[in-house]
Amino acid sequence: MEKSNSPFWHYSSIYDAEALVNKFEDKQREAVPDRLVNYLGAVINPRFLPHVLPDCAGKVEGPPAPNNWHSEIAEFAAVLRAVDQAVGSFTVIELGCG
User: Fold this and answer.
1) What is the DSSP letter of 72?
2) What is the pTM of this model?
3) What is the DSSP letter of 50?
4) Contact status, residue 13 vs residue 68, Cβ threshold 8 Å
5) H/E stretch holding 37
């Protein structure tokens, strides 16, 4: 997709968000029958979101460039930057509408 054709490419960042997202890609991930595997290796049951993830069972997603069904590259990068900069231990709580 051309970067100029999606509003999800238009964000402001002091770091290379796309490179950071790609850094965390699980290159060893494999398809799981009846599940969707995202680019981080997380396994999702598409039956929980049938209206959002139809026909996704058995598929493996690539990085969200610029977005996927769940979020966009700017949000993934913001979360992964916190993980990347963590030292010692890391605790996170997500407060969101989903």
Assistant:
1) B
2) 0.82
3) T
4) no
5) strand 36-37
Q: Per residue in 37-79, pLDDT tens?
A: 999 999 999 999 999 999 999 999 999 989 999 899 999 999 9
What would the two tokens of residue 48 be?
């929980």
Whole-number Å distance between alpha carbons of 84 and 47: 32
Strand partners, 37: 43, 60
Per the CB < 8 A criterion, the answer to whether 64 and 72 are in contact is yes
For residue 96, give both structure tokens.
């969101």
Backbone angles phi and psi of 43, in degrees to 5: -105, 125
Exposure of 57 by Cβ count < 10 A (0-12 exposed, 13-18 middle, 19+ buried)? middle
Token pair in block for residue 28 = 């060893």
Q: Which two tokens stand for residue 32?
A: 């799981």
How many whole angstroms from its chain centre is CA 51?
A: 19
Q: How far is CA 32 from CA 37, 47, 70, in A?
A: 7, 14, 19
